Each structure stands twice: as C-alpha cells, then as structure tokens.
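The material for today's practical consists of a large collection of protein records. Read left to right, the backbone structure tokens trace the chain's path through space. An example says more than a description, so a record of this kind follows:
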Amino acid sequence: MKSSVQPASHKESIEPSRDIGEFAIEAKSLSKCYRIYNHPRDRLRQSIWPRNITGQRVKLFREFWALHPLSFSLKRGQTLGVMGRNGSGKSTLLQLLCGTLTPSSGAVHCSGRIGALLELGSGFNPDFSGIENIHLNAALLGLTKKEIEEQLDNILSFADIGDFVDQPVKTYSSGMVVRLAFAVQAHVNPDLLVVDEALAVGDELFQKKCYRHLEKLKENGTAILLVTHSCPQILQHCDEALLLHKGRARLHGRPPAVTVTYQRLINASDEEWDATLPKKTSNQSTESPLTGSPSDQDQQNIAPVSSPQQSTSNQLSAHPSKTTQPSSGWFDENLIPSTTERFESKGARIEDVWIENSRGNRCNTLPFGEPFQIIFSYRASEMLNNIGFACHIANHTGLRITGQSHPPCLTTASDQDFIHPKANDCWTITYAFHGGLWPGTYVIGGGILHCREEPHHFIDRVIDFRALRILDQPSSTVVGAAALQAAETRLRLTPPVEAPRQTSL
C-alpha cells in the first residue's frame, strides 16, 4: 500500500525579523501535522471533491503530528540542546525554526540572521566550486558582496580544504562538505545558529575546532540550537536542554537532569515514558524562557565524581623518561591541535608537554588500555611561593574527561606540599594514567596556579597544547566515555637553566 504525505494547512507562519531583541527565538504553540493518504488519488479527490454523494464531508486521510504544540524562548548568547530518539520531532522543530517547513499552527519569531546546518551539503550546488558556493550561500544569508570578501579569508582558513576550494563540490568527501558548510555558516555572524548532528561527520580535531568557535559565537551574543544524541556535548555546551518524545516536549530544564532522564529512557517503551515523566512537565517548563539557575531536582541528578588522585598498585617508574625523540611507530606528526591557546605567563611558564607510553617512548598514539604518562616541564622566571599544578584531558567537544593536580588536593595542602621556586628553577611533573581512555582523539592542557590566594589563580595556562589518539580494540568490553584510575603524581627537580641574556638593540 502506497502512502502519500501532505502537510496540513497552517494557521500562522514563521515571522523572521532583523530586529535584535532580548530573545533570539520565541515559539508559541508551534506544531506540525501531516496528512497521510493511502493512495495519491485520495489527495486529489480530497482537494476537488471532499464530499460524498449525500453532501457530507469525507476525510480520506489520517493525521500524523510530527510536533505537538510547543512553546519556548531562547535568549541571545545561550545554547539550547535538543535530545530525543529518532523520530521524536527534533529535525522537524529545527526546520520550522529555519523556515524550511511551514507550521500547521502557532508561530515562531526568530530575531536577526539565521545560520543553519540541517543536512549534509544542503544549500550547496554540486556543480559549483567551493568558492562559488561560499559566495552563493553567504548572499542567501543576506551578506553583501563587500561583507563576503571581508570574511572570505577567514572562511577558507577555517575550512582548511586546500586547493579543493576551486573544485566542484560534487568531488568533495562528506567531511570536506561539512568543513566548508560550517565555515560559511559560522562566519556570517548569525544571530541564531542551528546545528542538527552535522558535526558528527569529520575528524575529531575539526569537531573540537568547531565547538571552540561555537563558544566564541556565544560570547558575541549568538544563540545556538544544537540537536545531538551526545550527552557529554549537552552537558558541556548547553545552558538548557529539551527532551522530545513522539513529537512532544517531555522534559525541559537544566542539562544534568535532562541527560540523566534521556539515558534512562532511551530504550524504554512508550508506557515507561508516560509512567516516568509527569504529563504536565512539558506545559509547565516550555512556556518559560531559558533563564534561571538549576533547580534542586537538577542538582539531585548530578552524580558525584570520584577523585582521580587515588593511588593504585600499578605505579609507573619513579622518574620521567629522558627520551627526547618520538617513537616513530606511535607518533603521528600530523596529529596537531588547531585550537591551541596560550595565556600570559606571570612568573612561571610551561616549557613543554609530551606523552610517553609504558615503554618510555615519546608518542601521541596509543592502543586502548595501555598505561601512559603526561609530562609537563616548567621554568620559573622569578621567586614564587605556594605554587601548584594541574593538567586535564578533554575530548574533541571540549568536555574534560579527567585530570590531575599536584599536590593532589590544592585546597587542603600544607605549604611544604607546594613548590617554592627561585628564578630560573626548572622542574618536571609526571601525571600517570592507567589507560582507560575510550578510543578517540583527545587534547591535553594544564596550568600553574598560585594556591594561597582565594580563589586560586593561574600564573600560566595552556589549552589544547598536545593531541592524543587512542586506537580502537574491537574485542574490548569497556563502555562509556572512560574507565580511568589515575596514579599519584611525582615531582622531580631538574638543574637550573641559565636565563637567556638580554641584548640591547
């Protein structure tokens, strides 16, 4: 039996506007209903002869509500994460907001310029080159020729597809299409950016680069609507989260509470959904704007995290390896983060960071489960007191998976636990891990802290300084983001390095 789908008639339409107000999105009773016909001829018959021989109106279709009435507001500079199983109405909601679908009822007011990544390669002409598609897409988004030319170098640099930019888009890989599409949408200075799982395609370091740029857009006042199945992404990047199920808003609140509920119900039956979530939750929460602080219920859903400083019996060597050359078999010269940031140094500096495997070889690629250690080298430029250190490992979205500090507890450590370097003193700290990182690509950062001031403040800090790739092992039974148990840190003082001489001009 063939089916024919036709959108139901709408009562109100989308209201785009270039007026920049407090809210980037205001949706009121927004819904989408489709008419489903068993045969194409029924649609024609319904439109031209909707009554039977007695004059009574007949209904030759059944209604399918892809999205039930939904109301919410999103302020400028905030991010809303939308979650739900396949078929829950996520993509329908985004298409209504972007104007590619017409609502069956209700209205949505979007303030300012809208950038959207809804489908892979949507809006690209496959026969046009990358350059031509940049001009075409930017013009469709309302940019003048002068504005496009001003942003062209930034777009090309961010996409980083080389000479392919002069080739037809139909010759691109899926990852190259996403690179170019995101670069265009993110550099037209949108007031609202809508992303629908597009960043799931492409390499992880580029995804990291994209999420870093999203944070910069937020700081500049861009509102972001992010559809994803990834709970870590919701927790890391979103101010609010919305859980959809069968076209209905089932839960709307702070990310910890929403993600916990989603993980619990992702494979549940409809009856379990109805039994778990209050029926009035949707109506109560979605009518309010995305503001406020986490509720007590949200706080209760945040599970405590155990300290990574618990010592284990599997201690690595007492001193860091003196290996200076990378192990060719486990070192990828092209594995370099493009999002590295260094902050101003104030009395001490992180000189270098490197990774060693269990055999003491410098590397940036490891098989799953192998212990490794991250070694930071430092140098002081002046006398300092009560200095502590920290390092972290983050995934490509910016979510910090694990980390360590020296001393293990910076708030309760005594003065003798801290370092008190003199000018030109050098030292290294080895942070040892037992190989529980899940396969994928990660970035490493860290900092030097002055720990006797409240709050602790950084005197040097690096973000995404090194990249680390963990290779997959199909036979592994580990699940989740990580299975880590950190070893205790070790400190080794190294001989002072003579400060470079200052030469006068």
Observations:
- The chain has two domains: 4-113+190-293, 328-494.
- The domain at 4-113+190-293 is CATH 3.40.50.300 (Rossmann fold).
